[in-house]
Batch of 3 targets.
Target 1
Amino acid sequence: MTLQLIEGPAGGGKSGVAALLLAAGEIEVLADVTALWAALGGAQRGPDGRYPVRFDDDPALAIARYVQAAVVRQALEDGYDVGVTTSQRNRVEHWRRFADDAGTAFLVRTVDPGRDVVRERLSEPDGSLSDACARAIRRWYG
């Protein structure tokens, strides 16, 4: 049994890596905060494949983080290999405690294509960057 933390900046490609891990059978349960946020808040990907801008004070985000933690705890308790995603820096010890409490192995995968790539992915077609996306970039890169 393993808990894998898949960390990296918003727009960095964590969900794609998680999907590959699921397909390869390396994880059986995925607690992806973006997917949970989208499901809880009714957000849908636009024609460009991107979700709408997610704001830090969005109630669905707070609930998604709570549900994410509950899913991880229960899945580990039930003996599954679990993947969990975050775009927040310095969350390794937080998630390591979950693995330690469950008596399971803990792995960290950092998915970071670089600040310029992330900025391009989060920018609007005209090159502008919303305040929320700029905060997301700063949250990871400082």
Note: The longest strand covers residues 2-7.
Target 2
Amino acid sequence: MPKVSVLVSIYNAEATISRCLDSLLGQTIQDIQIICIDDASTDSSLNILHQYQHQYSCIDVVSLPENHGQAYARNQGIPLIKAEYTAFLDSDDYMAPDAMEKALAVFVQHPETDCVLLDVRYRYPDGHEHGYRTPPFSVLSGYDAFVKSLKWDVHGWYVARTELYKQFPFDETCHSYSDDNVTMAHYLHSRNVRCSTGKYYFIQREDSCTHQATIRRFDWLIANESLHKKLIEWNIPHDVIDMYEEQRWYNLIGCFWFYNINKKKFTKAQRAHALNLLRHAWENIDTATCLPFNIRYKFGYMPLRPFWLLFKWQEWLLYQLRKLKYEDYGKKKC
């Protein structure tokens, strides 16, 4: 029986998948299961996976006929998990050789632990790197880790007991972003959450979903609403829900900023879709209780209900003012 199973979702990753898999095959623990789910790639990714599968018995490959997104793809791999512990690795990222060994050592030393965070390193194309902003901690209760994760004060790269993945699979609400919601569920239903020094290298790419002018950026709003519904279902205290609703509001403002910057790149239908999602979020976030007084009446952040067009104009004007500020700053730099 393998000690740990790793889920790897792949979509058009022919340039990076070998590095990703080699980092797993090179782990200092011997008993590892690597579950690769190809999400209907149109490049040579699936051929590369089959080559690895033919060479290494620890690799399982699932090929999906249609592209559904990372959450759906990972969920197709969960029934294949054979190990007591499970992690996931994005196909363009990689791990240090001792990452799994160090994470599993924490489980052995502290049997009441259900999730062990990895040491995340952001790595950039020019070679420089830095760690995630949260300082290491000794131990958090599952509930405390859950609360911190709502604002991403605790990150979402970890190894968990497989039973958590079986009970709380990835959120498939939308193509992008909703897979992050499983992190909160796993932390909330853990006894303790601890850190390890096993390194996870998170590769920063300009062509990633978060850096591109893609309509899928607005999936973030759908994912946020999905998690909000889960918080209510889990009977989370109202003050914690308010904290998350405040973050949802900031995400809405950020998505409006993204919309105004990039709307000329979208089709007419895409612009209408984005505005519908923005308006739906604007109507459904409970700003009456979640926003601090100084935010509720701050220009650019005021809800201005029930006047959607006025709110929309406020966001456009905020964008124009910020644009002028950045242009003026650029002139001074020159």
Note: Strands lie at 4-10, 32-38, 59-63, 85-88, 94-95, 113-123, 129-131, 139-141, 158-161, 192-203.
Target 3
Amino acid sequence: MARPKKPEERRRIRDVAFNVFARKGLESTSFSDIAKEASVSKSLVQYYFPKKEQFVSDFIDRSLTITEEIIEEDLDYEFKHELAKLFAMGLAQFHFSINNKALDAMRMDILRDRGSTEVVVRYAIDWIFKHTTVFPLETQEEEDMAKKTIVYVIGGTFDYLYDCMLYDVDFDLDFLFFASTAIMKPYLTNPFGEAEAIKEALSPEWLDAALKKYNERLFVEA
């Protein structure tokens, strides 16, 4: 008879894994590292997470969900376009990822390794389609094409971030927004004109306070 899976046991292992990944990065963290930190056997870790990629899936899901919660709770802004909240989430997530010392090791792993980048992009897109109705698509063919387009947008963004880090130049958020919306334009039901207002609402002070709350929720004591 198979050992029953316990949601609370899985959550604890996941939370421990997130903390280890943050310190060591994805590539340098082994199942044994997670097991040692969680004071459980390696086999138990792999029982709940047979592949390391499943930790990445959980991390992306939790990260984006927390970002959405913080925006809904704390941002004093009324979204008018279906894409507006997703745009605000993208800006906030960008800030949390790039300016977050707690994620330095993980960020460099993702940018350095194409395989890790692909996994992160794929799970981010799954989250978008599962939790939003931004893209009013009627057929599977339309959804597949939209997902491919988003892969192109996010993948291009990662390439741009990597180049900026490699050559030590500042990120141009206006360029990223222009390029992304130009590519996604066919999937928007009406013009999206809230970008400037949202960027103003996400002030540096708001983002710094939100980053603190983000880390408190993401890296819980396990």
Note: The two ends are 29 Å apart (CA to CA).
